[in-house]
Amino acid sequence: MKKKINAKFLLISALAVLLTGLCAAVLFYNILEEQIFDDLQTNAKLIEMMNPEMDTGEFPTETEQNGLRITLIAADGTVSFDSYGNENAMENHAGREEIKEALEEGEGRAVRHSATSNKHTFYYAVQTADGTILRIAKDSSSIYTLLVQMVIMIIAVCMVVFGLCIFWSRRLTRRLMIPIEKMADNIVLMEEGVVYEEMRPFVATIKQQHMDILQHAKMRQEFTANVSHELKTPLTAISGYAELIANGMTDEKDTVHFAQEIHRSAERLQNLINDIIKLSELDDGDLQLEFEEVDLLEAAKNCAAGLEIFAEQNEVSIHVEGYTVKQRGDKSLIEELLYNLCSNAIRYNKRGGSVTLLVYIEEGRSVLVVKDTGIGIPKDQQERVFERFYRVDKSRSKSTGGTGLGLAIVKHIVAQHGAKIEMTSEVGVGTEVKVIF
Length: 437
Prior knowledge:
Elements: H1 2-50, H2 62-65, E1 68-73, E2 79-82, H3 97-105, E3 107-113, E4 120-127, E5 133-139, H4 141-186, H5 200-246, H6 252-283, E6 291-295, H7 296-306, H8 308-313, E7 317-322, E8 326-330, H9 331-347, E9 354-362, E10 365-372, H10 394-399, H11 406-416, E11 420-426, E12 430-436
Parallel strand pairs: 7-9
Antiparallel strand pairs: 1-2, 1-5, 3-4, 4-5, 6-8, 9-10, 10-12, 11-12
Helix pairs in contact: 1-4, 5-6, 6-11, 7-9, 9-11
C-alpha cells in the first residue's frame, strides 16, 4: 500500500511539473514574441521619423549589425529596396500576410520561414505617409538560442522540483501511513486522537465490532460452560439412580422413587436440549421465517389451555383477556414466545396466584402482555433476566424444570419480529412483560 501511495504521489508530481514546465515555456515564448514585435515596431517608427522620404541611402548601417533587415515595398507589392538581398530578383510581395495587413489596417505582422535568408523570421510592416510599406524583419537564430537556453533552464528547474517531490512524497507517505500502521498493530488500544479526523468513525466502528466479537466470543464461552454444567446435573442424577437400581441396592419403594427422578431428570435434559437447539436456530443469520396473519388472542387462548395442567399443579390460575388482534409473524415462534413467558409466570408464582394474558392494540400497534402475581424480580436483576442461564431464583427454577433459556429465546423471537419488549416488576407483587409489535 505504501509503495502504491508513493507511486501515485510521484505520478501526480511528475504530471504537475511537466505541465508547469510546458506552460512556462509557452508563456515565455509568447512574451518573447511580443517583445520582438514591439522592438521591430519601435525600430520602424524610428526609421520613419529619421527618414520620412524613405531614401534608401539614408538607412542606418547599424541595422544589419543588429540583425535587422529593412525592406521597402510599393503599394502594388513590388520590392523597391531590401537591405539583405537583390530587390530586383525578388518576387512580388503583395500576397505576404504582413503586407496585406499593412495595406488594410496600416500595420501587420507575421512569423514564417524566409526564402531570402533561409531562416525562420519575424516580420513587422507599416504603411508610411506616401503609401509605401516599410517592413522590418529579424531572423530567429538568436531567439532560438535564447529559447534553447530557457528550455534547458526549465528542464533543470523541473528536475530539481521533481527531486524535491520525490523526497517529500516519501516523507508524506511515511507520515500518512503511521496511524494506519498503528491501527494494524492494535486498533483497540489506539486513541482516536492519533488518527485522522476522517478516519475516526471508521476506527470507532472497527473498535466496536472488535469489542462485539470479543463479547460474543466470551458469551459463547460462557454459554458452552453453562451448557456443560446444566447437562451434567441431570445426567449425573440419571446415571446415579440407574446404577443403584441396576446393582439391586433399592427396594420396590425406592425403585419407584428413583425411576420418577430419572424420568424427571430425563425430561429436564430433553427440555434443555430443545431450548439449546431453538437458540441455535434463532442465532442462525440465515434463518428463514414464514410470516403469516396470526390471531394473537387465539394463540394466547391455546397457550393457556396447553399450560392449564401445569398451572393447576402449581396452584395458579390462568386467564386470557382482550380482543382479536391480527399480527403478521411466524406462528410457531409467537406460540413459543407465549409458552416461555407463561410457563415462567406460572413457575415463579405464588400458591393461589394468577397469570393473565392480555391482547389489544395500543397506538396502532399490536400488544401482547403476560402479567403474574408472582415473586417479582429485584430491580438490579431485571436487565439480566434475558441472559442465557440467568436465574433469579436458581433453586425454584431447577425444582420446577426451568432451563434458564426461556427468556433468552423470547428476546431472540422479539428481535426476529422487529418488536420490542418491556418489563416491569416488583418483588413480592409480581411481574408484567409487554411485547409491542
